Amino acid sequence: MIVQLAFALYLLCILKRLFVDRKQNDLPLPPEPKGLPLVGNLNHLPPEGVPQYQHRFKHKDQYGVLSSVTVLGQTMVIVHDKQVAFDLMEKRASVQPGRLVMKLGFDVCGWINAMSSQALTPTHRLYRKYAHQQLGTKAMVARYSMLQEAVLGRFLWRFSRDKGENVERHLKTEAAEVMLKMLYNHSIEPHDSDPLVQEVDKAMAQFTEAVVPGKWLVDVIPALEYLPDWLPGARFKQTARPWNRTLLNVVDVPYGFAKKRVLRGQVGVSVVSNSIEQLQGEGGFGAEAEHGIKW
């Protein structure tokens, strides 16, 4: 009996979200493909292996500079012009600061903590402040030029060792190595697969899966986040739990390495260590500051 009532409640919530709330609250949207009842433009998602931007090219000719797609009540507005995108996101950022809300990826898996997932909140401004303090000028960025050249040299060595094969894998490794070296002064395993690089790759793959539009019911009905794990409709939690652990490993492990080196007085150039040292010198290295540096 409880299960039947739960399913009935889910259905009522879905219908209310899709038909009542949307009609009451939504302003007119840019043109979109004709959708289906309940699911919207679910049948207009990109085929497997086709990037979103390639799949949406045809919308510019059909609908103009602005178009939209709605999947299970979640609407995405697509901007097909560089200047329009700049005007909306830069010049008018103070009145249009929103980010696409993906409940599973952001809140359940934890990606809401990342700077790129934040709207223009005080937390986001704090993140930008710390980033600007370390990378805000050409002179600051130039401190990492030799580091990037060294990483490029290792990429070319690995590439030549494999005789030009596995290009995509080597490019991913180089990108991860640049990030880990600049942010944490962490050197990866030069000859074999590096565990931290593997975790970064895994986290990005999981994030991509977590934000697929229309895939997760909790994105449509956010209240499902609070269901007990054993109830029908809460299986997404079993998926999200290990994804959250992967994300925390990617953030906490290299940050812990960098912080320990600073506390031991070991000199090394990295964004995180420089930020910690600067805040310690200013007497402002508290929990909020540490969270801002870490994420």
TrEMBL record:
Q: SUPFAM superfamilies, per this entry?
A: Cytochrome P450
Which Pfam families does the UniProt entry name for this protein?
Answer: p450 (PF00067)
* Taxonomic superkingdom: Eukaryota
Do the record's keywords include Aminoacyl-tRNA synthetase? no
Extract the signal peptide range.
1-20
GO molecular function annotations of the record: heme binding; iron ion binding; monooxygenase activity; oxidoreductase activity, acting on paired donors, with incorporation or reduction of molecular oxygen
InterPro entries in UniProt:
Cyt_P450, Cyt_P450_sf, Cytochrome_P450_fung
What are the protein's UniProt keywords?
Heme, Iron, Metal-binding, Monooxygenase, Oxidoreductase, Signal
Q: Which cofactor does it need?
A: heme
By sequence similarity, the record places it as follows: Belongs to the cytochrome P450 family.
Q: What is this protein called?
A: O-methylsterigmatocystin oxidoreductase
